[in-house]
Amino acid sequence: MAGTWKARASLIVLGIIFCGTLFAFAIAKEEAPKLGTVIVVDLGTTYSCVDVYNNGHIEIIWLIDGAAKNQAAVNPERTIFDVKRLIGRKFEDKEAQRDMKLVPYKIVNKDGKPYIQVQIPDDETKVFSPEEISAMILTKMKETAEAFLGKKIKDAVVTIPGEDFDQRVMEYFIKLIKKKHGKDISKDNRALGKLRRECERAKRALSSQHQVRVEIESLFDGTDFSEPLTRARFEELNNDLFRKTMGPIKKAMEDAGLEKNQIHEIVLVGGSTRIPKVQELLEDFFNGKEPNKGVNPN
Q1: Residue 289 buriedness (CB in 10 A; 0-12 / 13-18 / 19+)
Q2: Which residue of 129, 143, 243, 267 is most buried, as measured by CB atoms within 10 A?
Q3: What pLDDT digit, counting tens, does each position of 75-85 carry?
Q4: Name one Pfam family in it (predicted).
Q5: In what order do the strands lie in the sheet with 13-17?
Q6: Superfamily of the domain at 164-239
Q7: DSSP 79-141
């Protein structure tokens, strides 16, 4: 499958990875007539979908939403998500070890690489590589896109976002809970599942509000959790990540051989593009050009 999904330099849609975000740049008006059908695959954390770019129009095909991910609070060991963070890593990598502490499912060492261990019906246990699980999702997405379009897909732009922003907030609250209550919830899968869900909701809310309250009933040992989170604190926790996003954008522009003044339109796709700081940095990078917010980023 990977061999037939090629990225093409001539495409008017350019996809790049952005810490949980896909940016699609609609560029060079005069190139539009050359385009056929292009799909942009967003292997997201909250949603996974295929965007079809066909003759100058974008249409979103919904595939997978957050319903399965919500199961992490009630069935944590068998709810697998965000495995793409482990792709290409060694089991002993610091980043992999850190991520293992924040997911409820079991990750085991196989030939020096992180594999996901899953208990399936009949009490059978199997292990899958992060690539295998991601391939299962991508295969289903490709099949759904082909059924929608009524033809085979030959070209795609694939993005693989992550949960970096959410994890920073989680780590902040885990430390706060330990300091205020003397309780370390980093090994409590159910508590982590609840906290992860609420941190994600808080992140979304802070795109339109300056302060939210994260409230979780009976987070640990029957103790309710209630703490404020401001947009300023959220931006402080993720400041270095926000700044790093400009690097891939610059690289994408260089690879495409484009100058900033050649960009016709900036289309934001991916939930994290709702974050005000992200939009501010993008506008500054493109010398005051405001991104197009007319496309549903999810």
Answers
A1: middle
A2: 267
A3: 777 778 778 78
A4: HSP70
A5: 13-17, 22-26, 265-269
A6: ATPase, substrate binding domain, subdomain 4 (3.90.640.10)
A7: ----GGGGTT--TT-HHHHHHHTT-SSEEEEETTEEEEEEEEGGGEEEEE-HHHHHHHHHHHH
